[in-house]
User: Fold this.
Amino acid sequence: MRLETKTPWLVLTPALAGACLLLIFGMGGIARGAPPEATVFQLASETPTPSLILTPWGSPTSTATLSLTPTSTVTPTLTPTPTSTPKASIFLPLMRVFKTPPVELLDAWTSDSNGGKVQAFLPGAGMRYNAEGLNNLGEAALVGLRWDQSGACGATQIYSDTLSLPVGAWTFSHPFTAPACTGVFSSTATLRFEDLTLSQYSPFVVNLPGSIQISVQQGFDRCYYPDLDEMQTWWDESPYLIYNLYIGGVSFACKDQPLDAVWVHQTAQQGWYFILTWVGPQAPCTTYKYRMSSNPETAYQQGRDEALAAHNAAVGLGFIDPKVIYYDIEAYPKATTSCRQAVSAFMQGWTDKLHELGDKAGGYGGACSSYLSDWADNDPPPDDVWIAHWIRSFYDPEVTVWGAPCVDDGLWVNHQRLKQYTGGHKETWGGVQLTIDSNVLDGEVNALQPSGVQSRGLAAEVTLVEQGAPLRDVGLVSPVQGWLLVDEKLLWTDDAGVSWRDITPPQREATHLLDVLFLDAHHGWMAGVMGEAPVVLRTQDGGISWRVSRLPGEWSIDDLPQKAHLEAVDERTVFAALELPSGSSFSRGRLFASLDGGESWEERSLPLGEGVAFEDALNGWTAGGARGDEFYRTTDGGYTWQEAEAPLAQDQLAALGLEEALMEQLPPGTIAYSAHSQYIWVVVEEGDCEGDKNVPGGRVTCSRRRALLASDDGGLTWREINTAVAQR
Assistant:
């Protein structure tokens, strides 16, 4: 039924139980621009023939009556009749109903010759073009369907024909052959029906055969992958040649930024080699959400299942030929024998299945806390290991894969080792800053050969030239007083950086310093690692003397913190949040509290490996996590935490050290900052490299410089503070 009116009306149809809203008509069709207020109507049931009184928008004194009859042979009549405002009115919200298209093209994609959905192919390989949609006509529909392809080989028409679509859901698949040249391609499916034209776009890539390569360079990893411009800049200007790809798994944190074969192909064309990592269920004796079975037989089968899923994911990204895939096993310290046996069985299943599929198997984990040496007793053991052993705070070209605790140097000796030697930290190369983990390699990685470039093999040698002092952190306690952490040395100024004095604790030779906090010019604390346990040093005389307190609890040599975050409510109430080693999909930490100025400490709890901010001894916050989107609050001093319902305020985020909230007003390359009113001090870093990474046996020379900048006007202008004394 269609009503032609000159004024928009509300049209209802009655039923035995009442009336339901159908359409809003006006000016020959669905009314547009309807007012937000409700429309008034009245059902006149006192008449022999039910009728509906309608009031047009904007005309409260003009109505019309729609006569309603129970027979379908009588056309409803709409007769305008002058009337007063109805006595009884009902108010309903307005609803729009849109016309369903006769046919729909919902998706188009490429698949291998067996129908498996993939985006990557070898030159000349069999493939299929697929499309699906809906036919809403209620009868077969004759449509025109065509595929057009464009890319490195030029543009061509793949298919064009008339099809008879069945009623309801439909699919169509057309076999073809992948292009002979490599590159990124786009296929466009176009469907035509009468005057309707619909299109769906689907990208895919053609790669040369990939390979497993040995690398003795350095690489980096992070949860979210950078964009292509950032990767190109870091290829040109950083010392890194390898990038870790998290290709999936139930425990992978950054699923909201899925990888695709196009990004991988374009990054490989820049020159990058890849570590492939799968993040699935964790040890059964942990508290992680997803855990493997404690039964070794079941865990073995789970390992096989994860291997197959990882293999398929890698193939979908373009790694079609033999490859090495690493499994992420996070720390599970103080584990029982049965728990360790289950993990070893899982890794045996992982290794066996990957070998059956023609791939190599690797494993990632803490040297001691993931019990990597257990895997050496498997038959066969994993082909490669990626050892998490955090021993530095930033990039260091001198570290090696050897000397990790709990993993004898006689294991995995034939170019079979990678080492993650530092956790999340900021680095700036070519003006692009990323937060990364750093890794040194003497092991196997994956290559998708760039067009026209031969295998690099062991590739070029990279050297680093340091310019200036290795500044790490800075803190202001007044406009002119503050401290500067330079490597393992702590300096103090009373004159805004004109002069500096050394207040490093005498225990510095035995302590790796992690964080510094001064409440005022007298009361200060330092967190660090001394021997095989974390400690907090405290001073009440501005650094003239220091006393040491060991943090309680059991500690594993490879599970010691690489970062610490100190927070003082007052001279007596102090918190120390420690960030523990973990893969990029996880965030682990421990929290300690002192109520006597740092002399004694009690362990509390911490849901994330991040800093904390407390407004008093009970109420505090923490934020961040693997994805950077987690927020927690405590009202009992950190004994328990609750997920926050809303993001924290900017000042609370700043108190947690989440500089991203303020980065826009800080200089590029800022890696640390401190503010006191409008006075801001920052440590900035800049680095670049020269040389060709693609030349085997060549040389790449990189330089890195850090500087201390100060602003007295809230960041409008900046000046450099002389830190030459820090180099002596």
